[in-house]
Design a protein that fits this description.
mainly alpha; Cytochrome C Oxidase, Chain A; globular
């Protein structure tokens, strides 16, 4: 047998006789379809674009302090566009978490339709950037320039379609890439919530995309597009449809607390059922018009959606009670992300009570309560995304983030999200948005909250950099998890998933392998 000292062409990436060279880093990024790379790019791009939305909110707050001396007639357009751009960016970041982690949790080397995920990422990124540019030219949502408004409408539709495509890939992965023995009843919570959230996201964005098409084919001018947004798309930013965005946050919180406490969720089926109930009560395609909102069914949805949130908080409390818990930024962010969801639900409850009396039971302006809902949801999305990035940091970046930037990130994001959401909610309750002094006071709160948010995201960038540096220095010890993603290499790549995975007999197969449990014994823990 002959032995050669040179690698074959397949390993070096180039055929000496073909004249072709191996693809460089840029070519691999632009043309690659590895789900871990695409997931990281989704996360980082989403956080960067969220900074743009926060800067817009900062300008709105400064304008309120300056008594409308900064933005003038563009105030409403910038404020509305920021409320759209923020969740649009954060949904992209959360999509990155799902694209990265869901295949790993299922022990799959790839995501379904990897080229589709790549197409979804680049379409979402470019269209979201174009939407932000249209805001600068008085377009976005509610702008006065017709050409810029049409550009904003088209880019918004493209971003929604891209996120819908990514959702198809995530949901299909959960349905078709599970290993032997892993039925849906044994799927980890993040993958389970990803399946439910992605499925409902497809339905929700599909309906909103149809209204975007209507606004475009009707060749509406700027006022017509603004009216089309209010009548056909604004329902996505209020209950119940807005809760669809945070369904994966529930899965993140349960998986983070289970791993961090070293405990198992005893009532696994009940936990899955609570996430499922929250998903069902988040279906909002039917509640698009004003007539459908002021109904008994809508009020029931607004009241009942609090039940699964409180139930999941109870399960988290049980994990803390039984486990050996120690503080981490991921734990704080996970817990607060659930509280932010509860804040959004509370805003919806007040809205429902107001409408139950036909505006006479409580005299609040529901428009600001709707703004409070989407602000709470955005705060939950950011907290949940960062909780996942920090908790699974060894998989994302190869090491753990340094304590200083990660702790600073958690505190700043919690403070910024809590302050901004509470300020918008209280402003809706006190009804002083027409008084200059009150506007200036709330403007100061918005400026402070936006500054905290911005510093928090910048601190998160420092934490990610420190985690990557730790990987270069040899990495850190990882948490001892019970689900399959913890058996993957660090930093994770799809093709590094081992072939000899343990047989799945419970929702925690790695914990079973460590503890020597027989099938069914995990139920007693």
């Amino acid at each position: 047998m002959a032995v050669t000292e040179t690698r074959p062409a397949s390993e070096t990436g180039a055929d000496p006789g073909s004249g072709r060279t191996a693809p460089g880093a840029v070519e691999r990024i632009l043309g690659g379809a590895d789900h871990t790379t695409l997931g990281r790019m989704f996360v980082l791009s989403g956080l960067a674009l969220f900074c743009v939305a926060i800067v817009a909110r900062l300008l709105v707050g400064i304008d309120a302090v300056a008594d409308n001396a900064l933005l003038g007639d563009a105030l409403a357009m910038v404020s509305s566009s920021a409320r759209v751009l923020g969740p649009l960016s954060l949904v992209g970041a959360m999509t990155g978490v799902l694209v990265f982690l869901v295949p790993l949790q299922l022990g799959s080397p790839a995501i379904s339709y990897p080229r589709g995920v790549s197409l979804a990422y680049w379409t979402w990124l470019l269209s979201t950037i174009v939407f932000a540019v249209s805001v600068a030219f008085d377009g976005g949502v509610g702008g006065a320039d017709t050409a810029a408004a049409r550009l904003g409408n088209v880019s918004l539709g493209a971003a929604l379609a891209a996120l819908g495509l990514a959702a198809v890939c995530v949901a299909t992965t959960v349905l078709t890439h599970r290993p032997p023995g892993m039925g849906l009843a044994k799927v980890p919570f993040l993958a389970w919530s990803a399946l439910l959230g992605s499925t409902l996201w497809i339905v929700t964005v599909g309906s909103a995309f149809a209204h975007v098409v209507v606004g475009q084919v009707s060749r509406a001018d700027a006022p017509g597009l603004a009216e089309n947004f209010v009548n056909g798309i604004l329902w996505m930013t209020r209950a119940p449809a807005v809760y669809v965005l945070v369904i994966p946050v529930l899965g993140v919180a349960l998986d983070v607390f289970a791993t961090a406490t070293g405990s198992r969720v005893r009532q696994y089926g009940i936990a899955q059922g609570l996430i499922g109930a929250f998903a069902v009560l988040s279906i909002g395609v039917w509640a698009q018009g004003d007539d459908s909102v002021n109904t008994v069914v809508w009020t029931a949805f607004a009241l009942l959606v609090a039940v699964p949130v409180l139930g999941i908080l109870g399960l988290v409390g049980d994990l803390v009670r039984r486990g050996r818990i120690s503080y981490s930024p991921a734990l704080l962010l996970s817990a607060v992300s659930l509280l932010f969801i509860l804040g959004a639900v509370t805003s919806g409850l007040v809205w429902a009570l107001t409408l139950a009396g036909s505006g006479t039971l409580l005299g609040f302006d529901v428009r600001l309560l709707g703004a409070a809902q989407v602000t709470f949801v955005a705060a939950s999305l950011l907290s949940g995304t960062l909780a996942a990035v920090f908790h699974w940091s060894t998989k994302f970046w190869g090491g753990r983030p340094a304590a200083a930037p990660s702790n600073a990130t958690a505190l700043l994001v919690v403070a910024g999200g809590g302050l901004l959401s509470t300020a918008v909610f209280v402003q809706g309750l006190v009804q002083r948005d027409g008084e200059p002094t009150a506007n200036q006071f709330f403007g100061v709160l918005v400026v402070a909250a936006a500054a905290l948010y911005l510093l928090g995201v910048l601190s998160a960038a420092g934490a990610v950099r420190s985690a990557s540096a730790a990987a270069a220095d040899g990495g850190d010890d990882e948490p001892v998890g019970g689900t399959l993603e913890w058996v993957a290499a660090s930093p994770a790549r799809g093709d590094d998933v081992p072939d000899d995975l343990p047989t799945v007999t419970s929702p925690y197969p790695l914990a079973d392998a460590r503890d020597g449990d027989a099938p069914g014994e995990e139920a007693d823990r």
